[in-house]
Design brief:
Elements: H1 5-12, H2 18-33, E1 37-48, E2 78-90, E3 99-107, H3 109-114, E4 127-138, E5 144-152, H4 172-176, E6 180-191, E7 194-201, E8 222-230, E9 242-251, E10 264-275, E11 281-292, E12 301-311, E13 316-327, E14 343-354, E15 360-371, E16 388-399
């Protein structure tokens, strides 16, 4: 710790003591922080994709180091820094007019892929404002908690924060969903078992400052709503089971412009997590339905996800995921493939997690992607040669 010369002189004369100075400066920092916490994580991994022909690997979220599915950005067959996440948070207290804030910043290749900066779609830099919002409470009924700024989406079985997910790789459901919105969000707790959330944003996101670019759409916004239910303790082994139903409707710059789509879409979501009579075993289901508007032919995407989680011991757990995808919009086709080239996909993922070191999440994963409708991987974007893609990965995350 560094002190100025005057302070050092007072300490030498015995007027003040070094411990008291340290305590004074510590109190000053705590006062300035006033309940703010610093958290975050460092996420790294090693990945191997067996075989050859990895020119076009499966196109799910964060499978590549940046924007776009190209061989030069693939994470296949190497070591990868995924992301560094740092968050400052002052949560709401229990007072009627409470206020706080949350700022979460990301650094690294996954930050570029998240695409919240104004250069989204041009490569961007390895930095992202993941979230940045002010929280406020208004004492109406049980109290409405507001977020104003940039916040995570209200739907989805999986999170943008990798350590919070059951598996290392992301699902196709997560990939199809919006990730970040810029707007106003309100949450009202009906009771201990139920809450509702509704909000308005500029667009589906994730680019900060984006607007609806359709002609004559000035003032057009994206609207969202969700209901969350949690089974009470009195439900026995079903206690803590949960369900989320949500819908988001508005403009997304990421919607392919094939078939005369105007960029507007509606995303429907239903997610369920169920406790079971077996101690440590949980099961989950997620449905994502993505419907672009004004298309001259159907280009909906339907994704069905199934999850199992088993906590074998305090440190050891196992996680499984299976998905079926009916992708009529070509959402998961290689970048550069003909517009609207849809596909039917399956993916199966198995993950083992063992928390050997303190504050460290360590897991091993195997994933198999299968394109049942025809070759989708390997070769080139216009001429893929493989139906199957396999991934082996080791993931380590330090959380602080």
């Amino acid at each position: 710790m560094k002190f100025n010369k005057w302070t050092v002189g007072l300490a030498a004369a015995g007027i003040v003591t070094v411990p008291s100075l340290i305590q004074a400066q510590t109190n000053l920092v705590q006062t300035m922080a006033a309940g703010t916490s610093l958290t975050g994580y460092v996420d790294v991994a090693a990945q191997w994709n067996p075989g050859t022909g990895n020119g076009n690997t499966p196109n799910y979220a964060f499978s590549h180091t940046g924007v776009g599915n190209t061989p030069s950005t693939s994470k296949a067959d190497g070591f990868n820094l995924n992301v560094v996440d740092i968050a400052l948070d002052k949560p709401l207290d229990e007072t009627p007019w409470a206020a706080g804030y949350h700022v979460e910043l990301e650094f690294g290749p996954d930050a570029a892929a998240l695409g919240t900066d104004s250069s989204y779609g041009t490569g961007g830099g390895d930095f992202a404002v993941r979230q940045a919002y002010v929280t406020m409470r208004t004492p109406v009924g049980n109290g409405i908690d507001w977020k104003l700024g940039v916040f995570d989406t209200i739907i989805g079985y999986e999170s943008t924060s990798g350590p919070n997910n059951p598996n290392y790789t992301r699902s196709y459901g997560y990939t199809a969903e919006p990730t970040t919105h810029e707007g106003l969000l309100g949450t009202y707790k009906l009771c201990d078992a139920a809450s509702v959330t509704a909000g308005v944003a500029n667009t589906f996101g994730p680019m900060i400052g984006s607007r609806d670019t359709n002609p004559g759409s000035e003032g057009s916004k994206t609207y969202m709503a969700a209901a969350n239910l949690t089974a009470p303790k009195s439900w026995g082994w079903l206690a803590d089971s949960s369900a989320t139903l949500g819908v988001i409707n508005g403009f997304s710059a990421a919607v392919p412009q094939a078939f005369n789509a105007n960029g507007n879409l509606t995303h429907y979501y239903a997610g369920f997590t169920m406790s079971t009579p077996v101690t440590g075993l949980k099961a989950g289901f997620a449905l994502d339905a993505r419907h672009p508007h004004n298309a001259s032919k159907p280009e909906d995407t339907w994704i069905y996800g199934f999850y199992t989680d088993y906590q074998a011991t305090e440190k050891l757990s196992f996680h499984g995921r299976a998905e079926y995808v009916d992708d009529r919009a070509g959402l998961f086709s290689p970048v550069g493939a003909p517009p609207g080239k849809g596909a039917r996909l399956f993916e199966f993922t198995a993950t083992a997690q063992y928390d050997l070191w303190k504050n460290v999440l360590s897991r091993a994963e195997i994933r198999w992607d299968h394109a049942s409708s025809g070759p989708l991987y390997g070769g080139t974007a216009n001429a893929p040669t493989l139906r199957n893609a396999v991934l082996l990965a080791a993931n380590v995350v330090y959380k602080f």
